[in-house]
Amino acid sequence: MKNEKKRNLRSREWFDTPELYGWTRQAALQGLGLDPGVYRDRPLIGICNTWSELTHCNAHLRTLAQRVKEGVWQAGGVPFEFPVISLGEFNMRPTAMLFRNLLSMDVEECIRANPLDGVVLLGGCDKTTPGLLMGAVSADLPAILVTGGPQLTAHWRGQELGSCTDCRRFEAELRAGRIGQEDWLDLQGAMIRSPGHCMTMGTASTLATLAEALGLALPGNAAYPAADSRRTRLAHRAGRRIVDLAERDLKPSRLLSAASFDNAIHTLHAIGGSTNAIVHLLAVAGRAGIPLSLKRFDELSRTTPVLLDLKPAGRFLMEDFAYAGGAAALLNEIAPLLDLDQPTVTGKSLGENCQGARNDNPEVIRPLDRPLEPAGGLAVLYGSLAPDGCIIKHSAAAPGLLRHEGRAIVFDDHHELLEGIDDPDLEVGPGDVLVLRGAGPLGGPGMPEWGLLPIPRKLLRSGVRDMVRISDARISGTARGTVVVHVCPESEAGGPLAAVRTGDPIRLDVPARRLDLLVEPREIKRRLAGFRRRVRPESRGYRRLYFERVLQADQGCDFDFLR
Q1: How far apart (Å, rounded) are the C-alpha atoms in residues 69 and 80?
Q2: Per-residue pLDDT at 8 exceeds 90
Q3: Is residue 3 pLDDT above 60, yes or no?
Q4: Which of 29, 55, 280, 351 gives 20 to 30 Å between its CA and that of 332?
């Protein structure tokens, strides 16, 4: 790729036209203070920015955008920053996932409609990263992803904490009465101590790492903290690098392949990454026209050991990962499992990017011959309750619950769950199975992160800290517990989850990759014959489009017409 001939720039098509618009476009650029000699015959580079003060994870991206601009100018390009919608996990209701596809369409159309030769994608918060990648892959112009980086490690009363793994742990202690309201408020002020996204191996950190494995981000993107000067230097390098990619037309369709996604899946399992990454990788692959199924995730899980000892499944945090060597060191450890010849945005192969990378802390990044677990931390289950599949992060589950049979305690929707879970009259024991339905792509709507059903307070107070929980929802990548999610088809689509009744026996068998409703198939069919949708589809706007065209989780929850 290094010696490829430079191409004629796409942006010239906007200026070299016989119509008046070519002239007025140049007049507009001169109105911005750019002389013709500045913008003609030089790559025009978009900086696609999901900055927003409503998305605290991304609130520092303007600083990174400025460094990208400097890099673009220095490499001979002309930068143009533009905004797209920003999806904040904390503030958006019912879930930012409802709007991921909208962001991807915003990104795709902004890139496609404007005189751009390449683009740097600035994201960070969970759904901004996959939305950016999906849109850029669809537009298929040279692109580099730069994420905002993780927050600094939180410190509270002598403990190192990670959001929001430890938020959830202490919330359980609050509900159990083991800490007080004053403690809870003090923790609130200590948890987020710098810009950036969650500093556990949650969804944001997982996707930032997978972008390196896919070859769509520069080495270092995964782990440098948001407050670290190396993050701003990374943005500067991306600005310089995108100019060369634009001149050589090294676009996503020339970088991505089935082998690239296998590399990303191996990496996902090796880092003990977020369940959400499965949905997002399926969506990105669908945009690239590369066949990918849930079964591939499970196949590669069986042959990929868990090496990264990070919360929520382990002990350490993203700062520790950065200091140990980051994604390059991790990829170097699992190099025997990877296709190292895959091209990347550096202009080098994945193998060249990680060759010789140092692992400076083998407790954080375990060597391949001394893994935390011999097989990957995520598993795909099938059975009478999930004929099209479901997901469990068994590396973050209680080992004693991975084979379990229990009585279903069913909640029809999230409101009913919140109203009833702490009812002292709720007949529930530690061996029961908590079931939530009505929380999938259609039921949520948007498949919210409701899958980590709270343990009933009366069980918390007796010392119970985990139970089997099943839903068609998602969970945050920062969550831990014996939680089965993404049940397909969802209940709102008439899947078997809609047939479960309180008292039904359910069997979970993770080693056998099974999730079964132990009710006669004839009875399940009879119950589903009376199924009626609970959610009334929206009548207008984006939400109407969403209800009409969204796919199920096993196909990435994308719109059918965008794949």
Answers
A1: 8
A2: no
A3: no
A4: 280
Lowest mean per-residue pLDDT among 2-6, 59-63, 300-304: 2-6
Helix (H, G, I), strand (E, B) or coil at 403: strand
Query: What is the per-residue pLDDT for 201?
Result: 97
Q: Is the dihedral of CA 536, 541, 542, 545 positive or negative?
A: positive
Of 32, 84, 87, nearest in space to 55 by CA: 87
SS3 447: coil
Instruction: Please give the pLDDT value at position 536.
Output: 84
Residue 48 phi, psi dihedral angles, 5° rounding = -85, 110
Helices vs strands, H then E, count in the chain? 21, 14
Distance CA 134, CA 280 (A): 9
- Judged against a pLDDT cut of 60, whether residue 82 lies above it is answered with yes
Instruction: Determine the Cα–Cα distance for residues 165 and 416; give it in Å rounded to an integer.
Output: 25
Q: Which amino acid is at 412?
A: D
Pairing mode, if any, of strands 505-509 and 154-156? unpaired
Instruction: Identify whether 195 is preceded by a cis peptide bond (ω within 30 of 0).
Output: no
Chain-centroid distance of CA 409 in Å reads 30
Q: Which residue has the tokens 């677990």?
A: 373
List all residues 6 or more positions away from 443 whose beta carbon is below 8 Å from its beta carbon: 413, 437, 472, 490, 491, 492, 534, 535
Question: What does the DSSP 8-state code read for residue 443?
Answer: T
> Given the structure tokens 């083998």, which residue do they identify?
362
Dist CA 437 CA 422 (whole Å): 18
Q: What is the distance between the alpha carbons of residues 453 and 421, in angstroms, rounded to a whole number?
A: 9
Q: 122, 146 in Cβ contact below 8 A? A: yes
Report the candidate in 403, 378, 392 with the shortest Cα–Cα distance to residue 482: 392
Q: Which residues contact 254 (CB under 8 A, 6 or more apart)?
A: 343
- CA-based nearest residue to 277, from 330, 222, 328, 338: 222
CB 333 within 8 A of CB 230: no
Measured distance CA(442)–CA(199) in Å, rounded:
30
The residues facing 405 across adjacent strands are 507
pLDDT band at residue 4, thresholds of 50, 70 and 90? low
CA distance 237 to 436: 46
Residue listed under structure tokens 């909640």: 411
The predicted structure's pLDDT at residue 348: 98
What distance in Å separates the CA atoms of residue 239 and residue 168, rounded to the nearest whole number? 38
Q: Are strands 78-83 and 403-411 parallel, antiparallel or unpaired?
A: unpaired
SS3 category, 120: strand
pLDDT tens figures, 106-134: 999 999 999 999 999 999 999 999 999 99
Strand pairing class (78-83; 44-49) = parallel
- Backbone φ and ψ of 431, nearest 5°: -90, -5
Cβ-based neighbours of 431, under 8 Å, separated by 6 or more? 404, 406, 407
Integer Cα distance of 519 and 307 in angstroms? 39
In this predicted structure, the answer to whether residue 1 has a pLDDT above a threshold of 80 is no
At 450 the three-state DSSP class reads coil
